[in-house]
Amino acid sequence: MSFEVFEKLEAKVQQAIDTITLLQMEIEELKEQNNTLKNEVSQASGNHEALARENQHLKEEQHVWQERLRALLGKMEEV
């Protein structure tokens, strides 16, 4: 009878080992995915900053052109 109990215990231990192994593999996969996502977020953040700078530059350029256009329109009205 104790041999049967030992076999059941051994089976449960083996099942626990298998489960732990699978969970460790899953953890490694999730760590890799996490690192990949961190890199993507970092790149997206850099892209966002670059786009924000470009947007600001274009707004300033638009403002300059608007001022030039207003000046030209003002001169035309004077004529």
Beta content comes to under 5%
Helix percentage: over 70%
Mean pLDDT across residues:
95
- Please, how many helices? 1
Poorly predicted segments: none
Shape verdict: rod-shaped
Taking the alpha carbons of the first and last residues, their distance comes to 114 Å
Strand count: 0
Global structural class: mainly alpha
Rg computed from alpha carbons, rounded to a whole number of angstroms: 34 Å
Element order, helices and strands?
A: H
What kind of sheet is the major sheet?
Answer: none
InterPro entries: Cell_div_ZapB
Subunit structure: Homodimer. The ends of the coiled-coil dimer bind to each other, forming polymers. Interacts with FtsZ.
Coiled coil: 6-68
Organism: Candidatus Pantoea soli
Chain-wise SSE layout:
Blueprint: H1 2-78
Pfam families: ZapB
Coiled coil: 6-68
Keywords: Cell cycle, Cell division, Coiled coil, Cytoplasm, Septation
What does the model show?
With 79 residues, the protein is mainly alpha-helical. The chain has 1 helix and no strands. The protein has one helix at 2-78. The longest helix is centred in the middle third of the chain and has 77 residues, at 2-78. The model has no long low-confidence stretch (mean pLDDT 95). This is Cell division protein ZapB. Residues 6-68 form a coiled coil. Belongs to the ZapB family.
